[in-house]
UniProtKB/TrEMBL annotation:
Positions bound to [4Fe-4S] cluster: C63, C67, C70
GO MF annotation list: 4 iron, 4 sulfur cluster binding; metal ion binding; oxidoreductase activity
Annotated cofactor note: Binds 1 [4Fe-4S] cluster. The cluster is coordinated with 3 cysteines and an exchangeable S-adenosyl-L-methionine.
Domain (Radical SAM core) ranges: 58-189
Cofactor(s) required, per the database record: [4Fe-4S] cluster
InterPro entries, sorted: Aldolase_TIM, MJ0674-like, Pyrv-formate_lyase-activ_prd, Radical_activat_CS, rSAM, rSAM_sf
Keyword tags: 4Fe-4S, Iron, Iron-sulfur, Metal-binding, Oxidoreductase, S-adenosyl-L-methionine
Protein name (Swiss-Prot/TrEMBL): Radical SAM protein
Protein family membership: Belongs to the organic radical-activating enzymes family.
The keyword Signal appears for this protein: no
Length: 300
C-alpha cells in the first residue's frame, strides 16, 4: 500500500491534505483504518449485479460527499462500523465468495482505495476470482480512479446532479458534475463495452445510476441527455425512483416527499425519446425504508 497517498490525502475532490496515517480525519470522516459496517449478500441491486445469488456487498463507513438526504447517513458520517485489518477484509472477500455471491461489491470505497488495492492483491493470492464492483457516489477524481485499472471489473457510479446550484445545496459540492463526469469517462475507458456471463451477470462494464429527486426533473433530464450524448448505449443507465425522505431532510421541505409516479414516468419517457436502450427502471414500492439494510456489522 502506498501510504504517501494517505499522508497528504487528496484522493477525493475535497483535497483535505491531511495526514490520515496519523489519525487525522478529513471530509470522509475516516483515518487510514478500514471501517466496515456490513458485509453480506444483497438482493436489491440491478438484476445483472445481484442476479439470483446476490451481490456480495461490503459497506464501508465514511463518505466524502455527504448528501443531506443520504439513506446510509449513519455509516456515511462514520457513526457505525467496525475497524478491521487488511488481512481480515481479504478473508471477508473469501467468505463472500464461499457464499456463491456473483461479485464483491465495494460500497462507498473511494477514501480507502490504497488499502482496497492491497486487499484485492491479498485475496487473489488466496484464490479470489469474483468480479470486483466499485459502487460509488460518483464524486471522484479521475486520477484516483486510474489507480484502480486492473483491480475493478464493473463500475457502478452515481451521477446525481448536472446543476452546480443543486449539488451545492444538497451535497455542498458545487463542482460535483465536473468531477463525476471525468471520473465516469475514465471508468468507461478502463472497462470498454459491457460484458455479461452466461447467467446474465455483468462481469465488465459501467452502470451509471441516477436517483431522481423531488422537484429536480429538469436536472434529471439534463443528466439523461448528457449520458446518452456522451456514451450512447455503450453504458447502462439505472433510473431510480427509490428516493426516501428521512428525518434528516425536514429542513429541506421541497425534497421532504417521495417523487410522484408522473415525475418518474416523464423521466423514463424522456430517456426513451433520446434513444436509451440499455437501462434499468424500478417498479413497485421501492421508496421504502425497508430497502435500507441494517448496518449491524453483519459479516464483519
Amino acid at each position: 500500500m502506498d501510504k504517501n497517498l494517505l499522508k497528504d490525502c487528496t484522493l477525493c475532490p475535497r483535497n483535505c491534505h491531511i495526514d490520515r496515517t496519523m489519525g487525522q480525519i478529513g471530509a470522509c470522516r475516516e483515518t487510514e483504518e478500514l471501517v466496515v459496517a456490513r458485509a453480506a449478500l444483497h438482493m436489491w441491486e440491478e438484476p445483472c449485479i445481484s442476479g439470483e445469488k446476490g451481490s456480495g456487498t461490503v459497506f464501508f463507513s465514511g463518505c466524502a460527499l455527504g448528501c443531506v438526504y443520504c439513506q446510509n447517513h449513519n455509516i456515511a458520517k462514520g457513526l457505525a462500523g467496525k475497524r478491521i485489518t487488511i488481512e481480515r477484509l481479504s478473508d471477508i472477500f473469501m467468505e463472500i465468495q464461499d457464499k456463491r455471491a456473483n461479485n464483491i461489491n465495494l460500497v462507498t470505497p473511494g477514501h480507502f482505495i490504497p488499502q482496497i488495492m492491497e486487499v484485492i492483491d491479498l485475496a487473489k493470492a488466496k484464490g479470489l476470482h469474483l468480479p470486483i464492483v466499485y459502487n460509488s457516489s460518483g464524486y471522484e477524481k479521475a486520477e484516483t480512479i486510474k489507480l484502480l485499472k486492473g483491480y475493478v471489473d464493473v463500475y457502478l457510479p452515481d451521477l446525481k446532479y448536472k446543476s452546480g446550484e443543486i449539488s451545492k445545496k444538497y451535497s455542498n459540492a458545487e463542482n460535483y458534475f465536473e468531477y463525476a463526469a471525468e471520473a465516469i469517462q475514465e471508468m468507461v475507458r478502463q472497462t470498454g463495452e459491457p460484458v455479461f456471463d452466461e447467467d446474465g451477470i455483468m462481469v465488465r462494464g459501467v452502470i451509471v445510476r441516477h436517483l431522481t429527486l423531488p422537484g429536480c426533473l429538469k436536472d434529471s433530464k439534463d443528466i439523461m441527455e448528457y449520458l446518452y450524448e456522451t456514451f450512447g448505449n455503450h453504458i447502462y443507465i439505472s433510473i431510480m425512483n427509490q428516493y426516501t425522505p428521512l428525518s434528516n431532510v425536514i429542513q429541506y421541505p421541497e425534497i421532504n416527499r417521495k417523487i410522484t409516479e408522473e415525475e418518474y414516468d416523464e423521466l423514463i419517457d424522456y430517456a426513451l425519446y433520446l434513444g436509451v436502450e440499455n437501462g434499468f427502471i424500478q417498479e413497485g414500492e421501492t421508496a421504502s425504508e425497508s430497502f435500507i439494510p441494517e448496518f449491524n456489522e453483519e459479516g464483519v
